[in-house]
Amino acid sequence: MSAESSVSPSRVGVWLIGARGSVATTAVTGCAAVTAGLHPPTGMVTETPAFADCGLPPLSSLVFGGHDMVDCPLPKRAEGLAAGGVLPPGLPAAVTAELAAADREIRLGGPLSGETRDEDELVEALASDIRDFTIRCGLDRTVVVNVASTEPVPTGTELPASSLYAAAALRAGCPYVNFTPSMGLHHPALASAAAESGLPYAGRDGKTGQTLLRSVLGPMFAQRALAVRAWSGTNLLGGGDGAALADPGAAAAKNAGKERVLADTLGGVPEGETHIDDVPSLGDWKTAWDHIAFDGFLGTRMVLQTTWQGCDSSLAAPLILDLARLAARAHEAGLSGPLSELGFYFKDPVGEGPAALGEQYAELIGFAGRLRGAGDPQGTSGERPGSSGERHDPSGQRRSLPGERR
């Protein structure tokens, strides 16, 4: 049963940071394909019976736009993905109108080379793009989702690009989802702005492959009282992610989430490291290998090895659609603050919550029940415990950034 069967016909914007990347292109193409009945919603948890009657916006109501620094049109980008086996042959041509419509709503991001605008001016320009999109398209609300390439852990006091976009989302009055390991709203300088915004937000770093498997296997070893001695891993990947993660700083940001899952599920970090290698010939495909050494009864030494081969864009795209719908519904229901119940989707979830996938799934299903019981979107029955329930002005009431001149 589709989760769309009893929802309101509101139109919801999905503003993608990195809107012409592989993940964004796959998400826009996939949404159009599922809406047209060309493909089933495989991988979309929100299309399972557990989410029926939750008031999620239908896929047909989603309107896409975003920021990017490249100018390759989405239809051409989709054709390239089809040639690489990421998208089915002929699908880009079947949904070219939808891709072209989304491409018309993509704006140049920042900071630009030789940028002369200060942080506040740049954030305001980015926020203005989002507000204009919401008004121009007649949207009830817009969710901002970061799917841009991973950036290194920032040093110094300047806000990195991901945090500038996150600040712009807050200023435009939009729920925010960080699907990357980049800093985003995690930057200390944005903590008070996020808390005062009255907006829901979720992240960070989507859990699509190796870490998804680790969040299942880690609890298994702990629950069976098997002593893990070492856990080593290797990732081979190409495409934009591979190129970005060739930077040691970006790779360190990515690996931090992978290691955190093991620490949280095993009660400590075992020996071993995770390596990420850029293999351009793999394109959007990746291979993740884990070598787990563990002790059994009477110290018997054993080994488990796993190999995960998948297409990151195809794994991530349905999750992007899930998260956009869930964040939009949370905003409609008056929820604010970190959406910890969405930890099921992330390596490094915001808020407090379990690390084991089974427990995270139980929390997600509980969240579906809360959304179902929220009732009147204008009421307060859906507020998070301890939240202010504050409504953010959809016209984009400005919020101060640290050090902003008012």
Molecular structure report:
By secondary structure, the protein is α/β, with parallel strands linked by helices. It folds into two domains: 12-206 and 314-373, NAD(P)-binding Rossmann-like Domain (Rossmann fold, 3-Layer(aba) Sandwich); 210-311, 2-Layer Sandwich (Dihydrodipicolinate Reductase, domain 2), CATH 3.30.360.10. The protein has twelve helices and eleven strands. It has helices spanning 22-35, 74-83, 91-94, 96-104, 119-136, 161-171, 191-196, 210-223, 239-245, 248-266, 312-332, 357-373, and strands at 12-17, 62-68, 106-108, 141-146, 176-178, 200-203, 227-237, 274-278, 285-295, 301-311, 337-338. The strands form two sheets. Strands 3-2-1-4-5-6-11 form a seven-stranded parallel sheet, with helices on both faces. Strands 8-7-9-10 form a four-stranded mixed sheet. InterPro entries: Myo-inos-1-P_Synthase, Myo-inos-1-P_Synthase_GAPDH, NAD(P)-bd_dom_sf. Pfam families: Inos-1-P_synth, NAD_binding_5. This is Myo-inositol-1-phosphate synthase.
Adjacency order of strands in the biggest sheet: 3-2-1-4-5-6-11
Mean pLDDT level: 88
SSE series: EHEHHHEHEHEHEHEHHEEEHEH
Q: What kind of sheet is the major sheet?
A: 7 strands, parallel
Q: Structural class per helix/strand content?
A: alpha/beta
User: What gyration radius follows from the Cα positions, in whole Å?
Assistant: 21 Å
Number of domains: 2
Number of helical elements: 12
CATH superfamily of the largest domain: NAD(P)-binding Rossmann-like Domain
The CATH architecture of the largest domain can be given as 3-Layer(aba) Sandwich
Quaternary status: single chain
- Our measurement of the CA-to-CA distance between the termini, rounded to an integer number of angstroms, reads 51 Å
CATH topology of the largest domain: Rossmann fold
Residue windows where pLDDT falls under 50 for at least 5 positions: 1-8, 376-400, 402-406
The CATH class of the largest domain turns out to be: Alpha Beta
> Beta-sheet strand percentage?
15-25%
Tell me roughly what share of residues is in helical segments.
Answer: 25-40%
Q: What overall form do the CA principal axes indicate?
A: globular
